[in-house]
Amino acid sequence: MHDPLTGLTHRAGTELASGRVRLSDTDVASLPEIHPAAMQADVPISVCWSPLVRCNLACPHCLDDKSVPELARPDRYRIAHLLAESAVLGVDISGGEPLLLRELPVLIDILVAGGSAVSVTTNGTHLARRAEALAARVDAVRISLDGPDAERHDHWRGTGSFDRAVAGIRAAVAHGIPTQIQTVLLRSTAWASVRPMVELAAALGVYGVTFLQMLPIGEGAVLADAEQLTDDEATELLAELNTTSAVPVRLRTREAAGGFTVIRADGHVWRNQPDAHAINSLRPLLSINDLALTARDGSA
Questions:
Q1: Reduced to 3 DSSP states, what percent helix, strand and coil does the chain have, rounded to the nearest 5?
Q2: Are 165 and 123 within 8 A, CB to CB?
Q3: How far does the chain reach from its first CA to its final CA, in angstroms?
Q4: Distances (CA, A) of 297 to 4, 193, 256
Q5: Is 37 in contact with 296 (CB distance < 8 Å)?
Q6: Per-residue pLDDT for the chain (300 aa), expressed as one digit of tens each?
Q7: Has this prediction a pTM greater than 0.90?
């Protein structure tokens, strides 16, 4: 079972029906977590699909590569149908900024009709105006925050971006969308920000916080030497929060991200190297067979 809210994979009990099943947070938490690689599937358990490069922000640690060409709308529909026909359990639509796509609701509907669990990862600045439409179709939203207040967040994402993101979070929660905050761990801010971030998540009523280890990929590669924490440092930093926080806290390490699959805006299948220190373009996504795993699957 793939949980679109956290990006985690769980081993479902035999009593669960196949296909799309909505479970309570308590039921999900009771199911044992399993790394996607342990499933030994032919295709990834979950993928990130970035159907556009465009974004209204310019974050210096962005994973996206702005030099990748962006396919036209008909190709986005084609890729949505291919993913819907595959055995991929979860699709996280990211970017760029996915809420800039007018056809986003249609793409989500295609994926959901195929049986996938669908989440949207967004900077949140357009979420307030689009939350109502998303609520009718998406399984979860993940909002990227780089600080627990405007001063720290806007340092990375621009003036006013924190207030707009928080307004988006409030709108998503108000419309009943399962909502998660995602935060990239940066050496210059992590030690002072992680607990306030969790406290903000609890105050906003979201399900939890996923802390992501920075990957030296895309625009963020130039910051890697200065801003990366080791996986051991990140684990130690968050150890206490796992038992004392008011909302669930998750760490996605670089090791876990090794082998994760991304469909970029050029329509190609990209896959993180085993150590997640780089990402490689494998082939255009023209058929389901192009998703085939040839090495260890990675975690969202």
A1: 35, 20, 45
A2: yes
A3: 14
A4: 17, 31, 9
A5: yes
A6: 899 999 999 988 766 666 788 888 888 888 899 999 998 899 999 999 999 999 999 998 898 888 999 999 999 999 999 999 999 999 999 999 999 999 999 999 999 999 999 999 999 999 999 999 999 999 999 999 999 999 999 999 999 999 999 999 999 999 999 999 999 999 999 999 999 999 999 999 999 999 999 999 988 899 989 999 999 999 999 998 877 888 999 999 999 999 999 999 999 999 999 999 999 999 999 999 999 999 999 998
A7: yes
